[in-house]
C-alpha cells in the first residue's frame, strides 16, 4: 500500500487534495493487485490506468494554472516534467499486462509512486518555497 506522508504536504489545500487523490488511485491498483480472487485483471487495470492518466492530466492542468497565478519563474521546466510524465504513462506497453499481470501492475505502480513522490518532494516543494517568499 502506498501511504500519503506529512512530508508531501505543500500547504496548498487544493494541491494536497489532488496529490492525495493520485495516491488513492494508485492504491486502487495495488488493492487489485493483491486481490487473488480476480484471476484476469486486464480490463480492471485498463480502467484504473485510464483513471490515473486522466486525473494526472487534470491535476497537472490545475497545478500549472496555480503556478502561472503566482508567477512561478520555473513554470516551463515544471510543465515539461508534467508533459514527459504523461508521455511516459501513455507509452506504457499495456499489452505486457497479459504476460504477467501482477508483475506489470506492480512495475507501473512503483514507477508512478516513485515519480510522483519525488516530484512532490523536489519540484513541487520548490514552488512552495517560491510562494512563501512572495508573502
The level of helicity is over 70%
Number of helices: 4
Largest sheet features:
none
What is the annotated CATH architecture? Answer: Up-down Bundle
Relative strand content: under 5%
Number of domains: 1
Q: CATH H-level name... which superfamily?
A: Hemerythrin-like
Helices and strands, in order, run as HHHH
Structure described in brief:
By secondary structure, this protein is mainly α. The chain has helices spanning 13-34, 42-70, 75-90, 101-134.
Describe this structure in words.
- The structure is a single chain.
- The chain has 135 residues and is mainly α.
- It has one domain (21-134): Four Helix Bundle (Hemerythrin (Met), subunit A) (Up-down Bundle).
- The chain is built from four helices and no strands.
- The chain has helices spanning 13-34, 42-70, 75-90, 101-134.
- Helix 1 (13-34) packs antiparallel against helix 2 and helix 2 packs parallel to helix 4.
Q: Topology of this structure?
A:
Blueprint: H1 13-34, H2 42-70, H3 75-90, H4 101-134
Tags for this model:
Hemerythrin, Hemerythrin_metal-bd, Haemerythrin_Fe_BS, metal ion binding, Hemerythrin family protein, Four Helix Bundle (Hemerythrin (Met), subunit A), 135 residues, mainly alpha
Amino acid at each position: 500500500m502506498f501511504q500519503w506522508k506529512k512530508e508531501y504536504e505543500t500547504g496548498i489545500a487544493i494541491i494536497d487534495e489532488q496529490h492525495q487523490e493520485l495516491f488513492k488511485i494508485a492504491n486502487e491498483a495495488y488493492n487489485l493487485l493483491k486481490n487473488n480472487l480476480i484471476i484476469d485483471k486486464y480490463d480492471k487495470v485498463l480502467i484504473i490506468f485510464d483513471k490515473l492518466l486522466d486525473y494526472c492530466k487534470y491535476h497537472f492542468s490545475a497545478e500549472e494554472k496555480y503556478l502561472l497565478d503566482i508567477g512561478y519563474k520555473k513554470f516551463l521546466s515544471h510543465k515539461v516534467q508534467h508533459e514527459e510524465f504523461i508521455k511516459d504513462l501513455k507509452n506504457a506497453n499495456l499489452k505486457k499486462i497479459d504476460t504477467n499481470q501482477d508483475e506489470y501492475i506492480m512495475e507501473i505502480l512503483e514507477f508512478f509512486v516513485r515519480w510522483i513522490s519525488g516530484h512532490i518532494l523536489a519540484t513541487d516543494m520548490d514552488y512552495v518555497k517560491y510562494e512563501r517568499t512572495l508573502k
